[in-house]
Fold:
Amino acid sequence: MDLVNRYLQAVKFWLPAKQKDDIVSELAEDIRSQVEEQESALGRKLNEAEVSAILKHHGRPLLVASHYLPQRHLIGPVLFPIYLFVLKIVAVFYMVPWIIAWIGIAISRSAHSEQSLLVTLASFWTAFWPTAFFVIGSITTVFAVLERNQAKSKFMEQWDPLKLPPVRDPNRIPIANSITEVIGGLVLCSWLIGGMWYRTIFHFSGMSITLAPTWEYFFWSIILLTVIGMFASGVNLFRPYWTWTRASVRLVTDCAGSVLFCWLMKANILASISVANVPESKTAQVANAINWWSAKMFPVAVVACVVILGFDVYRILRIRMRDGHSGVLNAASGAC
Amino acid sequence: MSPGSESNGNLFENLRLELRRGCLVLAVLAELRTEQYGYTLRKALTESGVEIDEGTLYPLLRRLESQGLLVSEWREEDKRNKRFYKISRDGKTVLKLLQAEWQSIGLSLEEIFKES
Structure:
């Protein structure tokens, strides 16, 4: 019976303090009754393996004890989907930018110092985990507190169906977006034509900034893409649904814009800076540093562009799926 | 057995357990119209076709007792201390109501089965 006592001791450890003895006595009685029944059937004492089989059938001590414990959870099934949603949002809008910024810093640091890229990334990795744990831990704590107060707050009972958001159509283009794009395009064009027409883009109180000769190509290309974008946004304003054609135009213009932007980062676009009473060698150093930083940010620019183009491609796929689905529905209704 | 039929088998088993879980309270209350201790109660239920494991039965007995539907006492029998359970007066009232509900559900389901 040593094995049974060991088992009961293991169960007892996890039981609620006030009921420990009572539950264990009842459980002991049940196990002993089973042992006795088998012994009388076999006409002999059970060996250790046979007793072990009975205990195994009862279940792991923690599991057995858990049946006597009240159901508890840190974050319950009602709040858990919101908790997951918040974690995903934090991952996308906090952790990912944090990682990208760190990678940028790591690349520039490795270029400046003797430290290898691997060592820099390793230092980033060790810095990442405390931040991640802090963020996830804070969110979990907040939700655990909300869970405890959920019943008291009557949050789940107090709601109004009339305040539910309208049905979301992913292929509908919000008018506010189109207006913002048109206004943004106008502001950009005005700024480019007003202030960036010539290579010397700034000339004031003894300071001037001059761009490289290649700026001319960038200038006209940006103007052209902005005008096309404004035109497309203007059409979207009056026909606020994504179509395959307009989504494709958006993809092509975003592709061209991405290539242009990434090229601009590497083009050493700043030719010179001159400031009154400052030696030319000093201002050349500043211009070189700005061009160098711009070139170093190239991978970040590429990642950002790939994300934007990914969204564009996803939009086209979504439209194709919608069109395919409505085609099937039309065929079905035609057959009827 | 194909993977599909295996998962169907698991699904059926889960649904069957879910279905039977609802009947356990009824079966335990009815069986405890006669005083019994845990081990004999479990055997009686098994013999009647209601299989229930120890991990489910004993916590259920405690819950029903805390709800006032059962009463229990520790008593010596065959030189061993055993906890005997019996249905309480409130338990008998609830049992009658549950039996009526059970019969009503049975009749409703029979009707539904006939229609389908």
Helices of chain B lie at 3-31, 38-47, 54-66, 89-115. The CA atoms of residues 26 and 95 of chain B lie 7 Å apart. Chain B has a mean pLDDT of 89.
